[in-house]
Amino acid sequence: RETEVSGLWTLKARVKPHTEHPVERVEFFVDDTLGGVDREAPYEIPWDFGKESRRHKIKIIAYNSAGARAQEVVFTGEKLRPGFLEIVFEDEQALKLVGGGTTVELILDASKNMRKKVEGKPKMEIAKQVLRTIIQDLPEDMGIGLRVYGQNVPSRPPKRHHESCQDTQLVVPFGVGNKGELLSAISTVTAKGDTPLALSLRQLKADFLGIRGERVVVLLTDGKEECRGDPVKAVRELLEDGFKIRIEVIGLAVEAAATKKRLRELAEITGGHYYDVRKASELELVLRKAVNVAYKVYDGNGFEVAQGFVGDGSREILPGKYKVVIFSEPLFSVTDVTVKPEGFTRIRIQSEDGQVKASIR
User: What angle do CA 232, 234, 235 make, to 5 degrees?
Assistant: First the structure.
């Protein structure tokens, strides 16, 4: 059935029992996407419909032990009072132990469109200024690299279009303690050419060759692919080849809705995020988020219910018991995390005798 709804709900199903074949499982679908499975009565799952009220298609299918669909299923719902979850580092050593396995590649768009102005300044100047600030504040033991596209060959179609569409370089390879080299390289970048985004993304496997731990790409761009490539396809091929990566995409004053949609898809298929930024202050904020240690929250059935960054404040979450996975090297998990209605749960990650430990309060 379809219903207009918003906020946090418990979706419930009442299934008429069968004398010979008891209920084996109940599947809950929201907008044709499997949202959860419950194998024990009472059959219910939590679901977040978001803040905006709109119509959603809700379907519930119950199966009995013979594999047949149950005939009588009644759907009800109950609006929930959310709780809050926060994950923080208690000390610098814990941050190093958990976050030390993260390697970040910055990809900077130096196409001609970055000459356009935001708040009276060229986008490129804003990007360079904020990148310099962020790089200086990153942990000394974090591996960082820099790839730039569009800075060498001016966009002069059609005569030099082929050359400008090959213009992408890893200008600073990954290294620890290379902040000076990064800052120097960023200071010389000028916006000139086209946007070979797909080609740049295809180089990631070679860029990260031999790198262990979590691989994060922070892409700062203001526009779409201009060289007949397909950035989403390029990333899907990397993922299908077993290359794990998280891409955080920052769109700097992107205008076209279709371009935003593609950039968002590019980020989300890797477990990353798309940030729509229009001010220098916003850019600094999201850049700091993007290079943080990520985490995901899973319910008892293994479904992802939330994600975020360690130290990025609390987030609203449905009441229940969860498993939290922090994307360090190796992965660090915290089980039996309980969130109560209108309650506040904080996971403190701390170091003890060279080991990482977590406490829940």
Answer: 65
CATH numbers and ranges of domains, the chain: 2-79 (2.60.40.10), 83-90+294-360 (2.60.40), 103-290 (3.40.50.410)
Residue 165 and residue 155 in contact, taking contact as beta carbons nearer than 8 Å: no
Give the residue among 31, 26, 33, 32 at the shortest CA–CA distance from 12: 26
Looking up tokens 């809050």 gives 84
pLDDT digit string, tens, across residues 104-121: 899 999 999 999 998 889
Spell 325-336 as b/e; 16+ CB within 10 A means b.
bbbbeeebebee
Q: Which amino acid is at 316?
A: E
Question: Model pTM?
Answer: 0.66
Q: Where are the alpha helices (DSSP H) in the chain?
A: 92-99, 123-137, 161-164, 179-187, 197-202, 204-207, 231-240, 257-268, 280-290
The sign of the torsion formed by the CA atoms of 61, 64, 66, 72 equals: negative
Contact 220, 107 (CB under 8 A): yes
- Express each pLDDT in 229-266 by its tens digit: 999 999 999 999 999 899 999 999 898 889 999 999 99
**Taking Cα atoms as reference points, which of 21, 12, 10, 1 lies closest to residue 70?**
21
